[in-house]
Design a protein that fits this description.
Length: about 270
């Protein structure tokens, strides 16, 4: 992207300066840019590394679901591990995972607020977190819904079989594990400090595990939900990483003079 017009002229006083420019035209062309980003998201999801990861997760979940290991793990957890303490630990993550119907408006609101506060660090973070999370739901949501019905495994608390029986039960992939992981996975991939990054990755597993604690989903269903969320979030991260950065320079009025500012979009 070319430099803004403000950088091509010399201004002798603050009164001669033009009003601050929008730092980038990217958000202005949101419809075409969103369509282009989604196309690249899908392409990145279909990369060999992602397909290999998903194949491994699918194979592992299949072994758990179709060999009786799911049921054995569920019974063992409910008998030997579940306590009032674990209920308390998983109460908040369960509530986060239950926000599945609200996440799209939450993410879009974050984009809108971030856009209005684009010149601030918080606004920048809110915009990118909301935009990436929204695209993650678009990319992974269809898979979560499709596999939920296609695999057809049931709920442990209802004594339904975890074996994959296409279209028998509409609970083959945990929605809590998928939707509840997205905000934290997106934040983790936007973070640099290792403690923060891997802390967020760990937290992203808790909404799904809360369903194991409540005996509402088998472990295999949670693994699949989290894996779809992770691969979708990673695909969106790769799209944004691959996007050519733009740099723009602007001059802004300050008391007694002017400030030269640079803006980089990644």
């Amino acid at each position: 992207m070319p430099l803004s017009s403000a950088s091509a002229h010399t201004y002798t006083s603050a009164s001669d300066l033009p009003p601050p420019k929008h730092p980038t035209d990217y958000e202005r062309n949101w419809a075409s840019n969103l369509a282009d980003d989604i196309k690249h998201d899908v392409g990145n999801y279909a990369s060999s590394n992602n397909l290999l990861f998903f194949g491994g997760a699918f194979l592992g979940a299949g072994v758990l679901a179709n060999t009786g290991l799911d049921r054995a793990f569920a019974d063992h957890y409910q008998t030997d591990f579940k306590t009032k303490g674990t209920d308390s630990v998983f109460a908040l993550p369960k509530a986060v995972g239950g926000l599945s119907y609200y996440f799209v408006p939450i993410f879009l609101t974050s984009v809108a607020v971030g856009h209005l506060r684009e010149h601030t660090l918080l606004g920048n973070v809110l915009y990118h977190w909301g935009y990436r999370s929204f695209r993650t739901i678009l990319l992974g949501g269809a898979q979560q819904i499709a596999f939920t019905h296609l695999l057809g495994s049931g709920r442990p608390n209802l004594k339904q079989d975890s074996k994959w029986q296409p279209f028998r039960y509409p609970t083959g992939v945990s929605g809590h594990a998928f939707y509840g992981a997205i905000p934290f996975l997106t934040a983790a991939m936007m973070s640099d400090p290792p403690l923060l990054k891997y802390g967020l990755y760990t937290i992203s597993t808790l909404p799904g595990l809360s369903r194991v604690n409540d005996d509402k989903h088998y472990l295999s269903q949670v693994i699949l939900g989290w894996s779809i969320a992770f691969l979708s979030a990673r695909s969106i991260y790769q799209t944004d990483l691959d996007r050519d950065p733009t740099f723009q320079v602007g001059v802004y009025p300050r008391s007694g003079g002017a400030m030269l500012s640079g803006h980089t979009r990644f």
